C-alpha cells in the first residue's frame, strides 16, 4: 500500500495542479486574443478606394471633401481618393479592380458588374445657336440662321469638353431626330477654350453637357452671346423617344430664365435629354460597406453642400429592379429601409461561435478528465482499499493494527479532499468516501471493544496462573 502521507506525491499533485492552471490561463488568454482580434476586425473602419478625375474638377473636389468629412467624424467607412485624368481612366481602374468605387457618367462604357450607389448630379444637354449681332446703329435683332435641330445638317457644331461621350450623345440625338449625323461637322473645345469657341465664325451651333446651373455652361452661353449675339435654344423634341429606347437617358426640361433673367435665357422651357453622373460600385462589393457609405453620404449631404454647393445635387439612385443601371444591393437596402440589424447580419456567426465554444468546452472537459485520469484511478483504488480495510478491521488481532489502519484511512481521506479540490471527484464521490469511512470507524470501534473485552477476560487467568 502506498504511503498516503508522503510529501513527494502531494508535491507532484501541486505541480500538476499548477500546470493545469497555467494551461487554463493560456487558453483564456488565447480566447481573449481571438475575441479581441475579431472585435477589432468587425469594428475597424472600412476604407474604399474611389477613382475620380480630373484634378481640380468639381467631382474631384466633392470626393475630397467627402473623404475629409468622413475621416473627421470617425465614420465606419473612409474614402481614399485616386485622382485620374478623367472618367475613362477612372472606369479603367474600376474595371481592373484597382478602385472600389468610381465617379462616371451613366452613358460611358461601364463594366457589366457596375451598379449605382449615388447620383452626384444630372447632366443635361443644352443646344443653342447664335442669332448674330445687330448691325451697327440698328436696334433690330437679327434672325438666327438655325432655329431647330432639323437645320443643323450641313453646319458645324462646337461641343464643349474633350470626352467622346458628348460626341456620341450628339450623334445619337441627331440620328433620333431624323438627321444624318455624317452631315453635321463636330468640333470639340476644352473648357478653357470658351472664348476661342465663341469667336470661331465657322461654328454655327454649340452644345454643352452638364448640370443646369453649371458655371461652364452659363459662361459659354454668355461668351457666345457677347461675340455672336443672343442664343437661340434648340429643343430636343425626341427626348421622350430617346429615353424610352435607351433608359440610361432621361427626358428633362430646361426651365425658363435658368441661364439668365435679363434677357431671359431661355425665354421658355425647353425639352432636352439628361444623363446621370454617379458613383458606381461593383456588384461584389460588400453590401454592408456600401450601405454604410450611402448612409454617411446622404446623412452629410447638407453639411457637404454648405462647403461645396454642388453637393446639393446629390440624389438617391433608382432602386427598381428594372432600372437602366440598377442600384447596388447595399445602397438599395439603405434607401428602402431594409438594412439588416447587427443580429440579423451576424446571427449565423454568433451561432457558429456558440457551437465552437460549446465544442471547446466539451474538449476542455475531456482534456481535464484525461489530465486527471491518474488521480481518478487513485481515488477508485483508495475507495476499494477503504472497503477492504473494513473487513480487515473486523479481524484485527491487536490495537496496533487498528491504529495503523486508522492512519491509512486518514491518509485516504486527505487524498480524497485533494482530488475534490482538483475537480477529479464530485460531491457524490465524497459522500461514498464518507459512508465508507463511517462504516470503517464503526468496525474499528467494535473491534476495539472486542479486543478490550478479550483482554479483560485474560487478566484473571493470568493472575491465577501467577498464584
How would you describe the overall organization of this protein?
By secondary structure, this protein is of the alpha/beta class. The chain contains 14 helices and twelve strands. The protein has helices spanning 7-43, 58-72, 87-95, 164-176, 194-199, 215-228, 239-245, 287-299, 301-307, 329-335, 342-371, 373-393, 399-422, 427-466, and strands at residues 46-52, 77-83, 101-105, 114-130, 156-160, 185-189, 205-210, 231-233, 249-254, 260-261, 264-265, 270-282. Strands 1, 2, 3, 4, 5, 6, 7, 8, 9 and 12 form a ten-stranded mixed beta sheet that branches. Strands 10-11 form a two-stranded antiparallel sheet. Strand 1 (46-52), helix 2 (58-72) and strand 2 (77-83) form a beta-alpha-beta unit. The longest helix has 40 residues, at 427-466. The radius of gyration is 46 Å and the shape is rod-shaped. The two termini are 46 Å apart. Mean pLDDT is 84; it is low at 1-6.
Summarize this entry quickly:
The protein contains 14 helices and twelve strands. The chain is an alpha/beta fold. Strands 1, 2, 3, 4, 5, 6, 7, 8, 9 and 12 form a ten-stranded mixed sheet that branches.
Itemize the secondary structure elements and their pairings.
Blueprint lengths: L6 H37 L2 E7 L5 H15 L4 E7 L3 H9 L5 E5 L8 E17 L25 E5 L3 H13 L8 E5 L4 H6 L5 E6 L4 H14 L2 E3 L5 H7 L3 E6 L5 E2 L2 E2 L4 E13 L4 H13 L1 H7 L21 H7 L6 H30 L1 H21 L5 H24 L4 H40 L1
Parallel strand pairs: 1-2, 1-3, 5-6, 5-7
Antiparallel strand pairs: 3-12, 4-7, 4-8, 4-12, 9-12, 10-11
